[in-house]
Amino acid sequence: MDKKVLFYISISILMSILIIWFVYCYQTSKCWFSEKDKETFYNGMEIVDKVLEKENIPYFVICGTLLGIARNNDIIPWDDDIDIAI
């Protein structure tokens, strides 16, 4: 599969996850990561990881995600996304 197509598929998956999260936050006024929320984000990131790794497309975490890994060894509880650079 073409790397551009895979790139756009990966971005679409991440955007879908973010849209679901923002709708959830808006409807419930709860924007902290629960264990279930973390699992959802980790599962979405696993899918993106598999696609990008399969096609040898390098990526890395950035911004709040990187800070959370460095400081908390986990997602920052009040962060509302996963940041990656491709």
How would you portray this structure in words?
The protein has 86 residues and is mainly α. It has one domain. It contains 3 helices and 2 strands, in the order ααβαβ. It has a two-stranded antiparallel ribbon with strand order 1-2. Helix 1 (3-28) runs antiparallel to helix 2 (35-54). It is globular, with a radius of gyration of 13 Å. The relative contact order is 0.18.
Mean pLDDT: 78
Strand count, sense and barrel status of the largest sheet are: 2 strands, antiparallel
Count of the separate structural domains: 1
**Helix content class:** 55-70%
Question: What is the CA-CA span between the terminal residues?
Answer: 17 Å
Q: How many strands appear in the DSSP assignment?
A: 2
Roughly how many Å is the radius of gyration? 13 Å
Per DSSP, the total helix count is 3
Spatial strand arrangement across the major sheet: 1-2
Poorly predicted runs are: none
